[in-house]
Amino acid sequence: MPHVAATIQSAIDLFPCGLVVTKRNERTIVAANQHFYDLCPLQPGSSASISAIFTNASRIMLESYVMPLLLSKQQCDEIQLSIEKENGERLPVLVNARITTEFPELIHWVITAAKQRDELYQELVNLRNHLEYKAEVFSNLARTDELTGLLNRRAFIENAEILIGDAQRQQRPYAFFMMDIDNFKAINDRYGHDVGDRVLRDIANIFKPNVRDTDTLARVGGEEFAIVAQVQSAEHAKAYAERLREAVSAESVAGIQVTISIGLATSKQHSLSQLFKHADKLLYAVKNTGKNQVMLTAL
Amino acid sequence: MLAHGFGCNQQMWRFLIPELAQRFQLVLFDYVGANTSDLSAFCSKKYAELDGYAQDIIDICEALDLNKVTLVGHSVSGMISLIAAQKIPERIANLVMVCPSPCFLNDGDDYQGGFEHDDLQELLDLMDKNYIDWANYLAPLVTGTEAGALTSELSESFCSTNPITAKTFAKATFFSDHRSLLPRNQHPTLLIQSDQDSLAAVTVGQYMAENMPHSQLQVVPARGHCLHMSHPDTVAAVIHEFLPAKSNGATHELRAACHT
């Protein structure tokens, strides 16, 4: 076969991948084929360290991943790094390296251009970031009540279960507040739904600064709001509810005098649904005995 | 106590262990987020700062009730050890920092940490493209991005990394500047540097020695940032020389591998 390169030694220069041998510790170049010099800024015969051909960030990868892997496992596969050319151009490359038992003081490197692989991975990274962002947006949408910006019923149940679980573990009392706007149907009928919506938004905005960050506040139904909170005692919970009730009645909402009724249940061991039931029952009791009041049961 | 640096995990120390185990009780651990640590303990806010990692060291010292501890930290763990030592000075006897840097970023003409912000951005980009642990590449999408939901089924291969914890550690490591802690050092400290380290230049070691009371600098004629792996005998020799024989007390061997 006369046209094949005479020896494997001269053929090595023709392979389209960079082949380099360096010392293990100094990483100075002992031998390299022509393609290696085509890829990087070094000149044939250079005894520089192989680290010198890479970008700063690649050098961190080299020292933090490639070298520890090589020294520990004698091999390192498919690591993507960037070569910095003399003109500042960056070339993504794929690096494979071995330390062999025959030559334990040397590292054998294979370096190939990986421009298209890099573009593909960039797309994958972008796609993943985009999906992460979308997932976050959807998750927020799924948990938020659109009108008031408060948590919705589903998110309320999720958060409330966690809060109650924590409180039970710490053996601390917790409270469930069921809050309902008095005569809301009449407001809607008299002033229209736009005003009704505004009342809901304004009341949510009155609640927000009066509720601690650690408490869970949500709109759980048409004109119903709920809070689950750790409390010091039933008396403290009652005072907390009274503050909320007074805060609403003290302000004119959308030009209308609005009040709320609150059914309140405290406990150290009852479940969310049990508290829900008791607070709801109390709320109806308040509605039937004059509204704009707080009723408490300490379970 | 041997504290690994950015990148891998406690297995980094395996070449140094035979050199030290005869004379010292060794405590090895992985920071939360690395290797087989409990990923449910990872909190992206806590571990966004080196203080979070220092807390891991403090927690181990307190849980095992360790005293007269020599903290040996590689790379960024040099500074993590310093933070820990300043918080629990009574438990710490000495500090040994292998290839440390108090700040990897350049600061005008005053200080050359070696890197610019753009380099860090490129590093995060490269890390994204090198998930060594590809199996978990898309896991954050499936489980949500918060750490509590992270899958803990990391492969146990050396240097396999979780994308979120590794990037958090990278940011904490390469964006931070802890030069102001150096003058407050109160423990005898050995700084071991290689004379050709592309991550921590000799000038960085000199800067530390000049600004750190009770410190001494040993420049080892070697290239690279993982001296404890490439030159374990040299590193062991300077550690043995630095730690006076009388302080070793017990000679029995006990090796506690802590997974925090």
Feature tags:
heterodimer; A: 299 residues; alpha+beta; Beta-Lactamase; Alpha-Beta Plaits; 2 domains; 5-stranded mixed beta sheet; 24% strand; B: 260 residues; alpha/beta; Rossmann fold; 5-stranded parallel beta sheet; two-stranded parallel ribbon; globular; disordered C terminus
Would you write up a description of this structure?
The complex is a heterodimer of chains A (299) and B (260). Chain A has helices at 8-12, 34-39, 56-73, 115-143, 153-169, 184-191, 193-210, 234-250, 272-288; strands at residues 18-23, 29-32, 75-84, 90-98, 106-113, 174-181, 216-219, 224-230, 252-253, 256-257, 260-267, 294-298. In chain A, the strands form 3 sheets. Chain A has a 5-stranded antiparallel beta sheet. A 5-stranded mixed beta sheet of chain A has the order 7-8-6-11-12, sandwiched between helices. In chain A, helix 6 (184-191) packs across helix 7 (193-210) and helix 7 crosses helix 8 (234-250). Helix content of chain A is 45%, strand content 24%. Chain A has 9 helices and 12 strands. Chain A starts with 7 loop residues before the first helix and ends with a strand. Chain A folds into 2 domains: 8-115, Beta-Lactamase; 145-298, Alpha-Beta Plaits (2-Layer Sandwich), CATH 3.30.70. The mean pLDDT of chain A is 92. Chain A is α+β, with helices and mostly antiparallel strands and 299 residues long. In chain A, a hairpin with a 4-residue loop joins strand 7 and strand 8 (224-230). Chain B has one domain (2-259): Alpha/Beta hydrolase fold, catalytic domain (Rossmann fold, 3-Layer(aba) Sandwich), CATH 3.40.50. Chain B contains 9 helices and 7 strands, in the order E-H-E-H-E-H-E-H-H-H-E-H-E-H-H-E. Chain B has helices spanning 17-20, 50-63, 76-87, 117-128, 139-143, 163-175, 202-211, 227-230, 232-242, and strands at residues 2-3, 26-30, 69-74, 92-98, 189-196, 215-223, 255-259. In chain B, the strands form 2 sheets. A 5-stranded parallel beta sheet of chain B has the order 1-3-4-5-6, with helices on both faces. Chain B has a two-stranded parallel ribbon with strand order 2-7. The longest helix of chain B has 14 residues, at 50-63. Chain B is globular, with a radius of gyration of 18 Å. Chain B starts with a strand and ends with a strand. Mean pLDDT of chain B is 84; it is low at 140-157 and 246-260. At the A-B interface, helix 3, strand 3 and helix 4 of A face helix 4 of B.
